[in-house]
Amino acid sequence: LVHYRRHFGKNRSLLLDKKTAEKLLKQYTAILPKKRNYYIENLYSHYAHTLEAEPLDTAGIIIKELYPKYYPEFEKLHRRTSAHMFNMMIMQKEQFDEYCDWLFSILFELEKRVSTDGMDAFHARFFGRVSELLLDIWINTNHISYTEYPFVYMEKVNKFKKAAAFLKAKFFKTKYDKSF
Predict the structure, then answer these.
(1) CB–CB of 150/9 below 8 Å?
(2) Would the CA dihedral through 64, 91, 88, 152 be positive or negative?
(3) What is the pLDDT of residue 59?
(4) Which of 19, 77, 86, 102 fits 44 for a cystine, CB–CB 3.0-4.6 Å?
(5) What percent of the chain has pLDDT over 90?
(6) How far, in Å, CA of 38 to CA of 48, rounded?
(7) Contact 12, 155 (CB under 8 A)
(8) What single DSSP character describes residue 35?
(9) Is pLDDT at 150 greater than 80 in this prediction?
(10) H or E element at residue 74
(11) For every residue of 149-166, which 3-state class applies, written as one string?
């Protein structure tokens, strides 16, 4: 599973191939992208500064209700400053199916509890953004063995605009209104 703008690879012309992935999956249950580090804030505060926190908070409530053994990992979002982001992974089928059952049960419940009425298309995509933060919760709680692999952006990223938007979100409470 990869993101439409990101793929596993060392650069655009050297993407992860099937042979290498199969070799890695003989040693590990999952291949995940290299962790993304957030140097200024923790995962929760970054989310809350840049997007509306309600969907993430509600996901925490759902996890506490439906899957209490996962809740301690959810709480660590307030301390962690890195995560395997972008909903990217290659996993053994059995674990992938288990992950999807867990994840989608949370997301379907989240859909019942958080209305997208009145949200523009960018903000109504919160299901994907919340799910990015849930991957490590599932991986860590289930003690899934994994290796990390580099990822490459398939489109250009304007890092200046992205940094400026983050600073506006953090210091002037201006939420993101588009992807970068």
Answers:
(1) yes
(2) positive
(3) 98
(4) 77
(5) 80
(6) 13
(7) no
(8) P
(9) yes
(10) helix 71-75
(11) ECEEECCCCCHHHHHHHH
Structure tokens at 4: 């439409």
pLDDT given for residue 156 in this prediction: 83
Q: Using alpha carbons, list the distances in angstroms from residue 77 to 27, 57, 80, 97, 103.
A: 28, 11, 5, 24, 17
Q: Single out the residue of 35, 47, 62, 7 nearest to residue 139, CA to CA.
A: 35
Q: How confident is the model at residue 159 (pLDDT cuts 50, 70, 90)?
A: confident
Residues counted in the chain: 180
Q: 159 burial class (0-12, 13-18, 19+ CB within 10 angstroms)?
A: exposed
- Amino acid residing at 82: S
| Residue tagged 């099937």 (tokens) | 18
Task: Tell me whether residue 84 is exposed, middle or buried, using C-beta atoms within 10 angstroms of its C-beta: 0 to 12, 13 to 18, 19 or more.
Answer: buried
Helix (H) or strand (E) holding 141: helix 126-141
CA distance 21 to 149: 10
Phi/psi for 40 (5° steps) reads -95, -30
Confidence of residue 73 (pLDDT cuts 50, 70, 90): very high
72: which residues sit within 8 A by CB, 6+ positions away? none
**Averaged pLDDT for residues 168-177:** 84
